[in-house]
User: Fold this.
Amino acid sequence: MSVLRSVYGLILASIAGGKTFIYLSHKSCFMRILFAAVILLFHLSAFSQRLPVEESKAARKTILKYNVAGLLLKSHNIQLERVVGRRQSLAVSVGFTSNASLPFKDFLLDRYDGDPQGIDIIESFAFNRFSITPEYRFYLGRKGAPAGFYITPFLRYTKFDSEQRISFIDSDNSTHNVDFNGTLKGYGGGVMMGSQWSLGRSVVLDLWIIGPFYGKMTGDFTGVDSQPIKDPVGFEDDIENLDLGPWTLDATVSGQRADVKLDGPFGGLRAGLCLGFRF
Assistant:
């Protein structure tokens, strides 16, 4: 079960941590892109100051944005922002990923090269993700909303639907292949800082610098085998003894069915670069 402990620890850490593990595994690439984006945005900001002043600024209070940085992780995120005061705005982001494999799959395959059990777990893992993030922005610059540096408290709800196959050896040395399906749900909140630039009358660039968040995650998984499990207590113990750090597991095995409940923290970091249209 040592392979299961290691593989599932990494899988769960990446999911429950939002983009934390993904961010770390892509840190070098992401930091280079972020540095280049900051340099580019400073030049664009200087350029935008020379553009004509917007006509009817009050009528352009809504911005629709797409997080282009999410393409690196094969995820999609759309945000709608609405100015509600001189320095305040409301925004809501919706993100999703469809039928995705592990974002650090190649790294794990290299790590468990030569281990059929570990490779089977990694290869069979797939998930769908949906998240919604409402926020309330405070713009601190002299221009007011929706331009300049801002701080924004936010809430986050994330749902992961995952499926994978787990192989294990029963008490009679027979091999079982159990297909597990389940859902993880995370609820949390945090604070993010960023900066937004208006490039002319309609185009907007929004840099999400960093936004740590923390909350609670729960999960329910069900696996059904093609034959009865002869040592249900032993299988329950194997599952519940998995070392997943701060997350706990509660397993119930009966006949051909295994039910697993998960409970633990939900946290991570928000970051991104959005291109938007103001209207």
Remarks:
- The chain has a mean pLDDT of 80.
- Residues 159 and 185 are 5 Å apart (CA to CA).
